[in-house]
Amino acid sequence: MNTELDTAELGEKIVKVLKTIFDPEIPVDIYELGLIYDVFVNEDSEVKILMTLTTPNCPVAETLPLEVEEKVKSLDMVKDAEVEITFDPPWSQDLMSEEAKLELGML
């Protein structure tokens, strides 16, 4: 079994799940918004997600990381998931994908 392939495949599945989670204030998913800084998957299928929020006092600061954790943990291949919030670097509109900018009429 090729673990490299498995972690890449799992990474893609995680991204798909992240794309189902939306920021309540902006009608764009958190992945396209650029809120996900990094996804780490180790050989034991434990996932660590480094993410930010649009603002430190974001109304979903408590619930959004939990939702991310629970949805990622719900994947069969995932043994455990942990979300770490960072504000370094702080989120800015530059981190949004072209798709998100288009969606919000910024292009």
UniProtKB/TrEMBL annotation:
It holds the Pfam family FeS_assembly_P. Residues 12-85 form the MIP18 family-like domain. InterPro entries: Fe-S_Maturation_MIP18, FSCA_dom_sf, MIP18-like. This is DUF59 domain-containing protein. It comes from Formosa sediminum. The lineage of its organism: Bacteria, Pseudomonadati, Bacteroidota, Flavobacteriia, Flavobacteriales.
